[in-house]
Amino acid sequence: MTFSMKTKKQQILNLAGWTWSWIATLALATFGPQFIWDDHQLLTILFVGLNFANGIAMVIANRHFFNSLDELQRKIQLEALGITLGLTVIIGITYSLLDTTNLIGADAEIGFLVGMIGIIYLVSTLIIGRRYA
Amino acid sequence: MKNKLKVLRAEHNLTQEQLAKAVEVSRQTINAIEKEKFDPSLMLAIKLARLFKTEIESIFIYAKD
Known about the structure:
Low-confidence stretches of chain A: none
Shape of chain B: globular
CATH superfamily of chain B: lambda repressor-like DNA-binding domains
Largest sheet of chain A: none
Shape of chain A: flat
Oligomer: heterodimer
Order of helices and strands of chain B: EHHHHHE
């Protein structure tokens, strides 16, 4: 796979497009039943399925984005993913433990974990990227 | 690993951007190699050697520490 800034930019735009449409379909599938189509089951199933299919397209776009990177950029992404995976497992299990042992008042929410993954990935990519600047 | 990439690039009057384009990597990668923060793959080392019409060992010097 050859590297070119144009290809990389195209893949970033492609990934951004699929990510935003995934968020949009997730919002529709979450709030649509209550606020738009009045709990119509068929429409709910349709939008949940659409959101899932959109998620698969987002994963494929992410793979294409990775393949458009050069070797240093891949190394940075790989290190950031390794840190993100490790911290997610550790923090996720601790968070779940805090919930099951009633050390926190509220229930453990998956949204917290997803948000945390995004923040750790972003911060670790920036920190590791600076090391090679 | 030590290297003479910056010297060779200067001798050939190339900017980091031009060299990066010639060997199909990002400017950041060329910069990281020049600063000896990143060791290139064999494929990239071969591309650089061919571009400068020299041998890999003339650009990259293996140093244990």
